[in-house]
C-alpha cells in the first residue's frame, strides 16, 4: 500500500451557509493541489455551531442528504478527484434530525453515511435537543482510499465506539469535531481539557493500532444568548491532529487560526504495530457482558 | 471525603525472594511514616520477572495466597496500619497458576484478590505459559480507603477492563506493572512506547472520570537466555505515575531508579469531573453488542 495523503480542513464558520461552503470548497481545491486523496471537514462545517442554544428556528439549518450542501460537496469531490468526509445537520423527516457525517467518493457519488451515536447535552452543547441518536451503528464506510471509521465529536470520548469501528474493519478513524473552551475557564482548566481531548483520541489509536484523525473548528462563536446572559460563547480550540497507530502525533494544526494540514499516511504501519502489540488477540470477550449494562451496581 | 495519601513503591528485584520482600517491607514502613494510608507495590515484586523465558523450574517461585509472601505483607499492613496492594505468582493447584493482585486491609486481613484477566505472550513476556487467565472478572475490592479497581499490567491496554471496573463502582484504578524496553530498540521507538503506555492509562482516567495509579518496576533484568542469544533482557522503565480524573499527571517516578511516590489524592474530584464530563450518561448500550465478538468481519 502506497502512502495516502490526507488533508484536514480547520476553519471558522459564519452565519452564511453559502459562504461557509464556498470557503470549504476553496480549501478542498487547495488540498487537492497539494496532493490530498482524502479531505476531511469539521463537524457541521456549513453552519455556525447552532447548538449553543435551544431554538426551534435553528431547524431551518437542516437539509436532507440530497440537499444543496451535499450536492455542493459531491461536485467538489468529482472536480478535485478526492474522497471527502463532510458533515451535515440532516433532516430525515419532520421532527427527525441527525448529526450526520457523509463520505463522498472521488467520482462524486455518496459512499456512505454515519449518524452520530453519542450525543452530548451540556451547557452550550444542547445536541440532544436537535439530533436523534444515530441508528446505523459503528460501521466503517468503504471508499477508494480505505475503510473509513467515521465517528463524530462526542463519540471521541467513548473507547467503545473506536473499538467497534476497529473490530468492523476500519483502516483509520476520522472524527469531525466542534469542541472549544468556555472563555471564563482558567488557563489551567483549559490546558487540562485540551490535553484530555487529545489524549483520549491518541488512546484509540493505541488500543486499536490504527491512525486517528480529528478535525476541529476554530475561533470564537458568540452565544445567541450573549445579550442577556454571562455566557460569552465558545472558543473552538482548533488543534486538529493526526495520530499514528502508537498514538504518536504526526501533525497538528493551529490552536487559534484556520489551517490546512496535508500529510502522507503510511497505513501499512497498522500491520507492523499490531504484530508488536497484538491487543486484539487477547480481548476477554467471555468477560465483557457488563459493557452492555448502564452500571454494575 | 478527606484527601487520601497513597504511596507507589517502584523498585528493582533480584533473585532472592527474601531480599525483595525485605526491601518492599522497608519501603512500606517509609511510606507509612510519610503518611500513606494506601501503599501499592509493583507486579510480581517478590521475584525477578521470570516470564522472560519458559522454564518449568520457575513454577517454584509460585505460592498459594496463604503462603509466606502474603503472610509477610499481612504483617506489614497490620504493623504500619496501611492498606496494601501486593502481587503474587499464585499457585492455586498443581498445574494451575495465576498472576494475582492481593489487597490487604490495614488490620492485616486479606480484603480481596484480582486475577489478571488479559495475559500477554510476546517475546520476553511469556505469561500465557505461566498463568491461567483470571476467572474473577473485573470486580473492585472494597477497603477502608475506597473500592479499589485493581488491574494488572497488560490489562492497562484494554479500555474494556477500565470501563468494567468503573461500572462496577471502583473509586480509583491501580495497575501493578512490569514493563520495559528491549535494549536494542531505537531511542525514538522507546519514546513512543513509553508515551503510549502513559497515554493509554491516562485515557482510562478521562473516559471514566477517576484517578489512575500505575506502579512499574525499574532497572535491567538480564534474560536467562543471555549466554546463548542476542536477547539482553528487559530494561524496566519505571515512570510509575498517578493521573487525575481528567488524565492530568499528578506525580511521576524516576525512569531509571528506585523511587517512592507519596501523594495526597482528592477522590472528591471524581464527582466534580463526572458532572462536567458525564460520559457514563451517554453510553450506547443498545449498540455495543459487537464488543462481545472477537471481530466483526
Automatic annotation (TrEMBL), chains A, B:
<dbReference type="GO" id="GO:0033388">
    <property type="term" value="P:putrescine biosynthetic process from arginine"/>
</dbReference>
<dbReference type="GO" id="GO:0050126">
    <property type="term" value="F:N-carbamoylputrescine amidase activity"/>
</dbReference>
<feature type="domain" description="CN hydrolase">
    <location>
        <begin position="4"/>
        <end position="267"/>
    </location>
</feature>
<dbReference type="InterPro" id="IPR036526">
    <property type="entry name" value="C-N_Hydrolase_sf"/>
</dbReference>
<dbReference type="GO" id="GO:0016746">
    <property type="term" value="F:acyltransferase activity"/>
</dbReference>
<keyword id="KW-0012">Acyltransferase</keyword>
<keyword id="KW-0808">Transferase</keyword>
<protein>
    <submittedName>
        <fullName>Acyltransferase</fullName>
    </submittedName>
</protein>
<dbReference type="Pfam" id="PF00795">
    <property type="entry name" value="CN_hydrolase"/>
</dbReference>
<keyword id="KW-0378">Hydrolase</keyword>
<dbReference type="InterPro" id="IPR003010">
    <property type="entry name" value="C-N_Hydrolase"/>
</dbReference>
<dbReference type="InterPro" id="IPR050345">
    <property type="entry name" value="Aliph_Amidase/BUP"/>
</dbReference>
